[in-house]
Amino acid sequence: MVKSILSLAAAALSVLPSLTLAAPAPWGPPKGHGPTHFPVVDKWLENHCPGKYNHTIPCNDKTAKIRKDFDSMAPLERKAYTDAVNCLMTKPSQLDQTLYPAATNRFMDYAVVHVNKTKVVHLDGFFLTWHRYFLFLYETDLEEQCGYTGSFPYWNWPATADNLHGSAVFDGSEYSMSGDGLYTDDSPVVLSPTLSLPHGTGGGCVTTGPFANMNQTMANIPVSIIIQGLPLPPTAFDYAPSCLTRDLNSYAAQTWCNYDALYAALEAPDIANFSTQINGVIGGGSLGLHSGAHFTMGAPASSLFVSPQDPIWYPLHTFLDNLYTSWQIRHPDQATALYGTETAVNLPPSANVTLETVEPDWGYFQMDPVAVGELTSTMAGPFCYKYDVAL
Length: 391
Ligand SMILES: [Cu+2]
Prior knowledge:
It is built from twelve helices and nine strands. By secondary structure, it is mainly alpha-helical.
């Protein structure tokens, strides 16, 4: 099967301006980092929504929840997390089944909401903050619907890039996020006329670990919809069940999700450069870190639209949020900087997103208006969390 339709990178590759990558940053951990919360955000919140976030327990370094590297969690902690995800899949959908037949349970409701919003929350100025809040809503749901009390984990892309199959995330044990798909003798993964990836080691059904034999319910939606500014196909939410598939791809992981790429992004001088490094660089044929992580997984996780059907989507994006948070900590004077307009690849043309711009909603999970400025710090507004390690 030609997988060009799965390409979220192709969109970025064909529309973003050409950029020259800065020389890779020296390999290694940062020499200390700044505070995890930002006075500039606190001041903005005071001015724009006074009293809205008066938590009973003030948020500080001692009270913040800690998100952890999946690999560093004890096996039983990892199992508690995947048990909670499986629990969410047993909860009934709250969406209108005549409009969204693919929404077979509450876990799939999140995937459906993501598809509904894909065109306005990617490759634009909402991307980082909208996804930050989407993750938070899901994390809160695991706690409230399924009694989860552990840490929200992230999948550390560069730490696992050289040993995907042996990593705690993908080793396929009952303490993992499930392993690779069964091997299928498939063609290379074609992203664009000038960029294709070698086939990974799977391609078929996931048969190991906590999500073995799980079903996905939505068919792929071509990324060309974004590039051409077209509406979602009328069949987008049709019930189209098949097994959950994966195709672990070490080439994608090692090429785009390595430490050099990570530190180059962390040292990006401004948010525009940071956004380009995570979403891809034209000319150099680079997917960028975030798209590279998606293509490390194969379909459906490589899809810009339907990727949240694979439970790995959440730890994948939690690491992206750690990357964004760490970039903010390294550039505190730019903590509230934004880049992009209100529409993916600015189609149709729209205004630049500002701190005052109201985010697209998160379906029934959050319908109230929330401004971008409310979501810029993980230690303010609705949030109070940080990461075990600032990158
Ligand atoms: Cu997304």
